[in-house]
Amino acid sequence: MGFGNPAAERAALEQTYEDRTDVLRPGRDREGNLTRTVYELVYGALPCALSRAGVQSRLSRERSGQNRAESRLDYDAVLFLAPEPELRPGDRVRVQRADGETLELELVGRAVRYPTHQEAAAREKRLI
Asked: In the 8-state DSSP scheme, what is residue 85?
């Protein structure tokens, strides 16, 4: 396989997609005077690959003024998948890893599309 053949390159990339993701989009549900955000499934079980970038360090936690009980773990990750699905900032993704682990992340920023794939930045935040 040489470079310059997007179909062959895409096929090679997709062989590395061992995970699956559901994409959920925020919407509004109104009940009387109350409006709440609900997430509706827009894509299900899309083949993907997830790459984690890092964890908030102790030094950055100290600079933020948070103590150990208040600190938040921020997992920066990149989701790789086919270029066709329309992903939006604020969408939530539920990634089922090949090893059985399930992660819930929120997309941040716009996905970058290429002829062979797209890359979407995601973040997982939870109190420890």
From this structure: S
pLDDT digits (tens, 9 = 90+) for 110-128: 999 999 999 999 998 654 4
Contact 12, 117 (CB under 8 A): no
Residue 74 has pLDDT above 80, yes or no: no
What's at 89, amino acid-wise?
A: P
Q: Which two tokens stand for residue 55?
A: 């964890």
Closest alpha carbon to 14 in 115, 99, 124: 115
Beta carbons within 8 Å of 23's beta carbon, 6+ residues apart: 41, 42, 43, 44, 46, 85, 87, 91, 92, 93
> pLDDT per residue over 49-72, tens digit each?
999 875 544 445 455 555 555 555
**d(C-alpha 81, C-alpha 105), whole Å:** 15
Q: In the prediction, which pLDDT does 59 show? A: 45
Strands of 1-128, DSSP E: 19-31, 34-54, 72-81, 92-96, 102-107, 112-113, 118-127
- What pLDDT was estimated at residue 1? 55
Under 8 Å between Cβ of 127 and 117:
no
